[in-house]
Amino acid sequence: MRLLAAMSGGVDSAVAAALAVDAGHDVTGVHLALSPDRQTLRSGARGCCSVEDAHDARRVADELGIPFYVWDLADRFREDVVDDFVAEYAAGRTPNPCLRCNEKIKFTAVLDRARALGFDAVVTGHHARLADGELRRSVDAAKDQSYVLGVLTPEQLAAAMFPLGGMTKDRVREIAAGRGFAVATKADSHDICFIPDGDTRGFLARKLGSRPGPVVDAATGETVGEHEGTYGFTVGQRRGLGVSVGDQQPRYVLGIEPVTRTVTIGTADLAGVGEISTAAATWTAAVPELPFRAQVQLRAHGAAVPCMVTASGGGGLVIRLDEAQRGIAAGQSAVLYAPDPEQGDLVLGQATVETTREREEAVRP
Question: Is 193 a catalytic residue?
Answer without folding.
Answer: yes
